Amino acid sequence: MALVGIYPTFGADKPPACLDFPGWGTVQPLHRRSERIPEDASGRSLAAVDLVAGVSATALSAPDRRALFQSVAQACVDRDCSYAAILDAAGARLAEAGTRGDTTRGEPFSLGDGIVGRLELGLPAGLAGPPLAQHLVRALTAVLAAAAARVEAFANQHRVADRLQRALLPPDLPDHAAVRFHAAYRPATDETVVGGDWYDAFEIGDGRIGVSIGDVAGHGLEAAVAMGEARRAIRTAAAGFGSPSEMLDYVNGILALQDSVGMATAIAGFYDPRDGTFRYASAGHPPPILVGPDRRPHALPAGGLPLGLGANGASPDWTVTVDPGTSIVMYTDGLLEYSRDILAGERILRETIAGTDLAATTAPAEALHAAIFSTVENTDDAATLVLQGLGDGPSRSLRSSAFPNAAAIARGTLRRHLHDLGASREASERVLCAVGEAVANAIEHGREGGAFEVDVDHAGGVLHVEVRNEGPWREFHESEERGRGLPIMQAFADGVSVTTTSSTTGIRLTFGLSETAAS
Amino acid sequence: MTAPADDFAIREMAGCTVVTVLADLDIGTVDAFKDLVGEAIAAGRPVVVDMTACAYADSTGLRAIAKTHAGGPAGSGLVVAPKGTVRRLFAITGFDVALAPFETLDAALQHAAEKGPAA
Q1: By CB count within 10 A, which of A190, A315, A434, B7 is most buried?
Q2: What pLDDT does A193 receive?
Q3: DSSP, residue by residue, chain B
Q4: Does the beta carbon of B2 lie under 8 angstroms from any beta carbon of chain A?
Q5: Does any CB of chain A come closer than 8 Å to the CB of residue B38?
Q6: Closest to A56 measured CA to CA, from A24, A104, A99, A94
Q7: Hey, is A279 helix, strand or coil?
Q8: Which residues of chain B are within 8 Å of residue A481 when distances are taken between CB atoms?
Q9: Mean pLDDT for all residues in chain A
């Protein structure tokens, strides 16, 4: 058992205005000072951590209160305390600082399983009478009791997290020239609801990198074991599959043979460095979010039925391009469901992603967890895996499945090109409008579940953009319903040509990037 | 996460539903736009589409605006003041004439009050 002493002091910058102390203080770790800390009642030796409570006159908001608890708890965790009891001898410490005055004795407080501490408080002479001091001491006692409970919860959380991560999550993620992986795992604050979330990324041997993230239904040790089996089943299957969807259906069959795995949601896929694409499929898992260099978050498609339902039901294969500066955030629903309001959770996640410079952060997955769980408690466990493209400038060729948000993603990539080329605002607008139409057309009229490609080529002040999709050209200019795309392309591009075969359509757009070439 | 709530703002004003388009109105957001407009029309209120804050639209978005204009109760589909790129798209597609957008939200609301059913 370790003891954490929390010593309230009142410095010159915290005048006795604090005497209408509302019940909360700020606590900062100061330094280790282990002398003078007595043994506890049963004679066990005690390690000590000094914390200084500077008491504010202003009532703290709930997040600040939470930050208070976390700072106390973190200080304890940092110092390897497995348990925290609180307080002794504050008066003596204050005497050292020459501020000894009235000393008052707080009531012992407990965590519900026995007395763990007692607060004694010294006040500067002449600044406060006994009633005020008693008021203070009661208020601080409440703070510290809550802090102690928090410390204990943190200690539990860390024990569980360590056990799970060491045993079941990959110790290392692949290190690659074109992409990097970051992951974070946060167990539920309540130990009893620790669940079966996992993440994984691994080199396959043929150059591709396998990626998976998932969530086994249920909680506790069984879910954790099942999680390990699901993760390993995907790892084992990966080398034999090109299609993530087929791989998930295969894994579904494998897991059906193992009683331990009930239902699980998952995303599994392959990053292919040869063309910079990430190809994945989903089994009932929350959709990944793609964040381009402009930091706008775009939901990617997901879908599919969870594993373990019997029938195979993985989503189609989805393909996106992982450009330099682009991040793909995959996560489990612990990142959304803390408030039992998934829509609110999605909004907070999106705002957090938009407000975090993922590409510039050394630990983006941890950063997202820290930002989201600074204001809410994680009542479920949460895993996050971030796949980031490395290198300079966007790739000149973008390949993507045809899904509605792909248009905005493609325009974001193109906007980055135009910025790199130094194109004027006016020229950029023309290019984005015309290419935006071609891409919207490819998405709307391409083959169901098909892909499209955008190639960008620039030479001598002329920009060529070619948009190709699977599926024959539809005579959309003949129909009023579809009749506005082609005129927009013609109005904004200096040249438009359409080539079509029975299986593909290509729209080639040409732009002069100098101002005088504007139409 | 297909229809983020922050892509559009919905307000009830002077008996009308004002749909303010904050996101790019393109193939990725148009379905959410159609749903919002459809709900308002089903509730029997004229819809005013405020394009003032919209930075980009593609032809699927423009078609949806035209449909809003054509459907719904009298005074529906009034469009407010596209700017910049979207204004140029209106000119290219003839929407600036066909939809006769209003320069201000107040003008659109006043028009709806005169033309539309009693709020």
Answers
A1: A434
A2: 57
A3: --S-GGGEEEEEETTEEEEEE-S-BSTTTHHHHHHHHHHHHHTT--EEEE-TT---B-HHHHHHHHHHHHSSSTTTTEEE---HHHHHHHHHHTHHHHT--BSSHHHHHHHHHHHS---
A4: yes
A5: no
A6: A24
A7: strand
A8: 63
A9: 71
Q: How confident is the model at residue B86 (pLDDT cuts 50, 70, 90)?
A: very high
pTM recorded for the entire structure: 0.72
CA dist., res. A402 & res. A169, Å (int)? 33
Cα–Cα dist A346/B4, whole Å: 8
Q: Which residue of B has its CA nearest to A351?
A: B6
Both tokens of residue B118?
A: 């009693």
* Alpha helices per DSSP H over A209-363: 221-238, 244-256, 342-354
Q: Which long-range contacts (CB under 8 A, 24 or more apart) does A237-240 make?
A: A238/A202, A238/A204, A238/A210, A238/A268, A238/A270, A239/A204, A239/A205, A239/A206
Please give the Cα distance from A229 to A168 (Å, whole number): 9
Output the average pLDDT for chain B. 84
3-state secondary structure of A175: strand
Sort A113 into a burial class: Cβ within 10 Å, 0-12 / 13-18 / 19+: exposed
Q: Sort A116 into a burial class: Cβ within 10 Å, 0-12 / 13-18 / 19+.
A: buried
Question: Can you tell me the ipTM of this complex?
Answer: 0.90
- Kindly determine whether residue A444 and residue B62, on different chains, have CB atoms separated by under 8 Å: no
Sign of CA dihedral A33, A37, A40, A43: positive
Q: Are strands A382-389 and A327-331 parallel, antiparallel or unpaired?
A: antiparallel
Contact A481 B63 (CB under 8 A): yes
| Residue whose tokens read 């009235």 | A102
pLDDT tens sequence across A463-519: 999 999 887 656 544 444 455 688 899 999 999 998 888 788 899 999 998 754 444
Residue whose entry in the numeric block shows the structure tokens 């506005």: A484
Question: What is the rounded CA–CA span in Å between residue A183 and residue A201?
Answer: 9
Beta bridge partners of A197: A215
Task: To the nearest 10°, report the CA torsion of A398, A401, A406, A407.
Answer: 80
A174: exposed, middle or buried (C-beta count within 10 Å: 0-12, 13-18, 19+)? middle
Q: Residue A8's pLDDT band (boundaries 50, 70, 90)?
A: very low
Is B27 close to A347, i.e. CB distance below 8 A? no
Record the tokens describing residue A408, joined without a space: 């905005």
Which one, of A123, A32, A152, A141, lies nearest residue A87 by Cα? A141
SS3 at position A155: helix
Beta carbons of B58 and A485 less than 8 Å apart: yes
- pLDDT, tens digit (0-9, with 9 covering 90-100), for A179-222: 999 999 887 776 555 678 899 999 998 999 999 999 988 776 67
pLDDT tens across A149-184, in order? 655 565 566 566 557 656 778 888 998 889 999 999
B28 and A405 within 8 Å at the Cβ level: the answer is yes
Residues in chain B: 119
> What whole-number distance in Å separates Cα of residue A190 and Cα of residue B12?
43
pLDDT, residue B46, reads 86
